[in-house]
Amino acid sequence: MIDVCGIGLNIRAHAISHSKRKAKQRSEMEIKLQNQLNKAKKAVETNPSDSNASLLDAAPKQLKSFYEEKTKGIIVSVHVPDGTKMERRAQKYFLNLEEK
After folding, report:
1. pTM of the predicted model over 0.85
2. What is the DSSP letter of 80?
3. How far apart are CA 20 and CA 26, in angstroms?
4. Which residues of 50-64 are buried (b: 16+ CB within 10 A; e: fewer)?
5. Residue 15 vs residues 18, 46, 78: alpha-carbon distances, Å
6. Which of 79, 86, 87, 100 sits at a 20 to 30 Å CA gap from 30?
7. Are residues 59 and 37 in contact, defined by beta-carbon separation less than 8 angstroms?
């Protein structure tokens, strides 16, 4: 006999650990990009050469691209509940109140 409950728990545990690992990677990437931007700003302040200016141009673009990807993930993960299901729950709640 197959232990379906155990398999479900294993899948859930794997999914949670995977999502935590990905979140940590994204967080590290965000910090790295912010540090690159700060270094580029300091480099331009101390030595305004063409190479430093190009670094300063590239860093905000990379950070903006990262935030756009992050925003897409947030928008996709938002779940809107089914309105009819919510309405039924509300009706049950108020009908139960009337009965009391």
Report:
1. no
2. P
3. 10
4. eebeebbeebeeebe
5. 5, 47, 18
6. 79
7. yes
User: 32-38: which pairs have CB atoms within 8 A and are 24 or more residues apart?
Assistant: 33/59, 33/62, 33/63, 33/66, 34/63, 36/62, 37/63
pLDDT at 15: 83
- Report the distance separating Cα 12 and Cα 6, nearest Å: 10
CA 66, 68, 74, 76 torsion-angle sign: negative
Q: What is the pLDDT of residue 21?
A: 93
Domains of the chain: 4-78 (1.20.58)
